[in-house]
Amino acid sequence: MADSTAGNADSLRLELKKAMTEILEDGGVSEDRGEADERCDSNLKLDEAIRILNSLREVESKKIPDSSSSSVLEVPKEFKCMLSRAIMSEPVVISSGQTYEKRYISQWLMYKMTCPKTKEVLSHRLFSPNHSIAELITQWCQVNKYHLPKPSAAPVGLFPDDIHLLLEKISSPSSVEDQTAAANELRRQTKRFANVPAFFVTEVPDSITRLLTPLSALGEAIDSNPGLQKDIITALLYISRLEENKTAVAQHPLVIPLLTKSLKKGTDKTRRNAAEALSELSKLDSNKSIIGNVETLKALVHVIKEDHFTAAINASYAVFQLCFIPENRDKVVSEGLVPALINRIKERSFVYIYFDVLSLMTTQNGVIEEMEDLGFVDVMLSILRNTSCPVTGEDGVSVVLLRMCDVNTGDRDRERTRLKLIKEEEEKYSTFTKFATQGSQRAVAEAEAILQWIKRSGTGEEEP
Predict the structure, then answer these.
(1) Where are the alpha helices (DSSP H) in 219-336?
(2) What dihedral angle (degrees, nearest 10) is formed by the CA atoms of 130, 134, 140, 141?
(3) What is the pTM of this model?
(4) What is the three-class DSSP state of 121?
(5) Residue-wise pLDDT tens digits, 125-157
(6) What positions does the domain U-box occupy (predicted)?
(7) Which of 3.90.770.10, 1.25.10.10, 3.60.20.10, 3.90.1150.10 would CATH assign to domain 157-335?
């Protein structure tokens, strides 16, 4: 029954796709037929498409939910505007017969006399509502419980030809003033308009190379023009935020070396945005090995040690993402990550991210001992005792419980000192009892485990 229902749904989707294609192809008015005949034929096709949609709605309602199927609903490409890359809320048809989102094609036609898709020269710049497609989109949204955005009059960003012109100014041996002005405009556009990063990688040839050419040409003197460097790196950050761009950006041979250099040189904002770009790119598992080279990791650790707290936070997020690959953990520990994190934690600002990274590092050999030698147990107990932030408290408990309490270093003196500190904390301040009675479910479980560990250790029982 389930297979039959799924088969019917697939069949109806194919029928719907065929009907939509025919309606889209009839977007313009035929020269050989009257407008009345054209409208009649169009209405018949629309009625047929709506019939298919209603049948699909009925079939979908009978389907047994599949827990293994993706929960992400894919909008049919026929319902997306080529210019906005999003579902159309106000579709209009131009003289070439192609359909676009009104506000995007309106801006296109202010400067161009061609069809974005077919490239043909248009007979005029007029357009009219495509009621057929609008009705189909509305019906599809109802069937799939998809929220259709309301029409908007907000301005839109650059199109591929405009991006190409800016990149020409950025990459050509023109004046520094022209390069900087073009980079500034591209930075502004990539931040403000979602369609610009989408066009940048897929629609503009060699876009990444051309964007980074000025910085690559400067070599080690990358920071000799800080304004240009900042705008280029910031534009690269906004381009990297788009999920479908992450692979192409990270795999480009110029990107990681130039982001690494920018971590070391340039303005505070440049270093901060370079760290955030690496964090964005590291979210993709396939990029972690590409980014996790010794030089990049060393530069990230240096930012955590020395830089402004915002840059340090961004660098910490990047390290956290990269260190899901175990081999990267040894590299950052050897570069001095542990004392850098502890010093940041002592500042008591955004402690949770530093605790997250430190918790990840405690799986590495020698890290627990390094933390103890740096006096971190006292610092952490003080944070736990005084924190009003459940996240900070729970992460701190995780470090103590999951690593320190149960680790066996073979050094009895070290372990006795650790027990003494944690036991005194509980006796004086009831820190873990407080978490065991007032914390979240996770905090309660961890605090109770610590209390049991103190009890076992105090009576000389063997660890399980």
Answers:
(1) 226-240, 246-251, 255-264, 268-282, 285-291, 294-306, 309-322, 326-334
(2) 150
(3) 0.71
(4) strand
(5) 999 999 999 999 999 999 888 999 899 888 888
(6) 74-147
(7) 1.25.10.10
